[in-house]
Design a protein that fits this description.
With about 450 residues, the chain is an alpha+beta fold. The protein has 2 domains: about 5-280, lpxc deacetylase, domain 1 (Ribosomal Protein S5, domain 2); about 295-439, Hotdog Thioesterase (Thiol Ester Dehydrase, Chain A, Roll), CATH 3.10.129.10. Helices cover about 20% and strands about 35% of the residues. It has helices spanning about 80-90, 110-120, 180-185, 195-205, 235-245, 265-280, 300-305, 355-370, and strands at about 5-10, 15-20, 25-35, 40-45, 50-55, 60, 70, 75, 95-100, 120-130, 130-135, 140, 145-150, 155-160, 170-175, 190-195, 215-220, 220-225, 255-260, 320-325, 325-335, 375-390, 400-410, 415-420, 425-439. Helix 1 (about 80-90) crosses helix 2, helix 1 (about 80-90) crosses helix 5 and helix 5 runs parallel beside helix 6 (about 265-280). It is elongated. Residues about 285-295 have low confidence and may be disordered. The structure holds zinc ion. Zinc ion binds next to helix 1 and helix 5.
C-alpha cells in the first residue's frame, strides 16, 4: 500500500513585483507558508486590518474576463494564474499577500509564479490531502457554448479543445497534470485575446496595464505579440492553465479526467461548484459544515489526544464544531458492529441509553478541557439530572451529540446541558455535572 499524499506548503516566503492588468498600478505579491488545512488565501496588505479572502468557490464574485473573489466589500481580481501555479505545483496551504486588488500580470503566463514557488520551495506537511475521486461523469454546459465533462480517472488529466470566433485557431491539447508537466508544458502559455473582444475595453480604458508584453492579441488571422508564440498551440495550453486555477477554487485535489470544449471562467467555476455538490453527496451522513478546517472541529486522532477512552468505550467519532465558547457538537456513527448490540438485544438491536449519556459526557468534557486548556486533567462525571430517553437509536443512525456549558466554577466543577439527536429529532437528553482531577 502506498502512503497517503501529504498536504504541502511553501518552505519560506518569497516576493515579486509588477503591474496589475486592469488598473495598471504597481503591485508587490508575497507568498507565505501556511499551516495544515489552511488552504489558499489572499491577504490585502493595502487595506485596514489586512483582510483575507479564501480562494474558494463560495467567495466567487465575477467571471467576466478574469476570476474575481471577495468577502464582504473586499475583492481580489484575476486570481486564476497565481492559484493555478500554486495548485499545479502541489501547494495546498499558502497566503498570497498583495498591496493591491490584483496580482501582477507578468508576461501573461504562470511562469513568474512557478519561479516564485520554486524560490520559496515546496514542503510536505503532517496531514493527508483530501482528494475528490470522480466516480461518475459530471458535466457542465453553458449558454455561451462551453462544455466540460469529467470522467473517472486514476490521475488528474485535462483534455481541452479551444476554438476562437468563427472557428479560427482551433487547437487541442491533452495531458496529465503533475508539477513537472505543468512547468514544462502549461505554465509558459500566455493570455491571449481576440482583438474584437478587447477593442471596447481599450476604448473604455478598462485594461490600463494591458500591452503586447503581457498578452497575445489576435487580429483577423494575424497573431500580435512581443515575442513569437512559445508553442504552436499556446492558446489551448493557456486555457488549461486557467481551468486548473478555476477548478482549484473547489478547495480539494481532483482525481479525474476533465474534457473541456471552449472553456471559460464561467464554465470552469461552474464545474468547481458541481464538484462541491458531488463531494457533499459522498458524505450523506454529515452536512458540509461538518468538515471545517483547523479550529472548526476535531478528528478522531485529536479526540483521542484529549480523551483517555478507547474502543469499545469511545462514544464519539468526530467533533464537527464549536459554537462560541459554550457549545459543542460531536458525532457518533452507530453501526451493527458495536459490541453492545450482541447483547442489547440480539433480535432487536437498540443502543443502550446509558451509552448515549456516556457519549454526552465525553463530548461535554472535550469542550471543558478545551475551555480550561486542562488536557492534563481528567473529567469525572459526578451526577446526571433530568435524564430522558425519548426514542430508540438503532444501527445505521448517526448520533449528533450536543452539549452546552451552563455553569463552571473554579475550574473544578462544571455543568452541561446535553442532548443527542438522530435526523434532527431528540432521542435522549440530560444535565450532567463534572469535576476535574489531575491525571
Ligand atoms: Zn488566463
Amino acid at each position: 500500500m502506498s502512503s497517503p499524499e501529504l498536504q504541502q506548503t511553501l518552505g519560506k516566503s518569497a516576493a515579486l513585483s509588477g503591474t496589475s492588468l486592469h488598473t495598471g498600478e504597481k503591485v508587490t505579491l508575497k507568498l507565505h507558508p501556511a499551516p495544515v488545512d489552511h488552504g489558499l488565501k489572499f491577504r490585502r496588505k493595502d487595506l485596514q486590518d489586512e483582510p483575507t479572502i479564501s480562494a474558494l468557490i463560495d467567495n466567487l464574485k465575477m467571471v467576466e474576463r478574469a476570476t474575481t473573489i471577495g468577502e464582504g466589500s473586499v475583492r481580489v481580481h484575476t486570481v486564476e494564474h497565481v492559484v493555478s501555479a500554486l495548485a499545479a505545483m502541489g501547494v495546498d496551504n499558502a497566503i498570497v499577500e498583495m498591496d493591491a486588488n490584483e496580482p501582477p500580470i507578468g508576461d501573461g503566463s504562470a511562469v513568474p509564479y512557478v519561479e516564485l514557488i520554486k524560490k520559496a520551495g515546496v514542503m510536505p506537511q503532517e496531514a493527508p490531502r483530501r482528494i475528490f475521486e470522480v466516480r461518475e461523469p459530471i458535466h457542465v454546459e453553458t449558454n455561451s457554448g462551453s462544455l466540460l465533462v469529467v470522467l473517472p480517472d486514476e490521475k488528474f488529466r485535462i483534455s481541452c479543445t479551444q476554438v476562437g470566433p468563427n472557428g479560427r485557431f482551433a487547437q487541442f491539447f491533452s495531458t496529465e497534470i503533475t508539477p513537472a508537466i505543468y512547468e514544462r508544458e502549461i505554465a509558459a502559455a500566455r493570455t491571449f485575446v481576440f482583438y474584437e473582444d478587447v477593442q471596447p475595453l481599450m476604448e473604455k480604458n478598462l485594461i490600463k496595464g494591458g500591452s503586447l508584453e503581457n498578452a497575445i492579441v489576435v487580429r483577423g488571422d494575424a497573431v500580435l505579440s512581443k515575442e513569437p508564440l512559445r508553442f504552436p498551440d499556446e492558446f489551448v495550453r493557456h486555457k488549461i492553465l486557467d481551468i486548473i486555477g478555476d477548478l482549484a477554487l473547489f478547495g480539494q485535489r481532483i482525481r479525474g479526467h476533465v474534457v473541456a470544449v471552449k472553456p471559460g471562467h464561467g464554465s470552469n467555476t461552474e464545474l468547481a461548484r458541481a464538484f462541491q455538490r458531488e463531494y457533499a453527496k459522498t458524505m450523506p451522513a454529515l452536512p458540509r459544515r461538518a468538515f471545517p478546517a483547523g479550529e472548526g472541529g476535531l478528528d478522531i486522532n485529536q479526540i483521542m489526544a484529549i480523551l483517555p477512552h478507547r474502543y469499545p468505550f469511545l462514544m464519539v467519532d468526530r467533533i464537527v464544531g464549536f459554537e462560541g465558547e459554550k457549545k459543542i457538537i460531536g458525532v457518533k456513527s452507530v453501526s451493527i458492529n458495536e459490541p453492545f448490540f450482541a447483547g442489547h438485544f440480539p433480535a432487536h438491536p437498540v443502543m443502550p441509553g446509558v451509552l448515549q449519556l456516556e457519549a454526552m459526557a465525553q463530548v461535554a468534557s472535550i469542550l471543558m478541557m478545551k475551555l480550561t486548556k486542562s488536557a492534563s486533567r481528567l473529567g469525572y462525571f459526578i451526577s446526571a439530572d433530568s435524564v430522558k430517553f425519548r426514542k430508540p437509536v438503532m444501527p445505521g443512525d448517526t448520533l449528533f451529540i450536543h452539549a452546552e456549558l451552563t455553569k463552571a466554577r473554579s475550574n473544578r466543577l462544571a455543568k452541561a446541558k446535553c442532548y443527542c439527536a438522530v435526523n434532527e429529532a431528540v432521542v435522549s437528553e440530560g444535565e450532567l455535572m463534572f469535576t476535574f482531577l489531575d491525571k
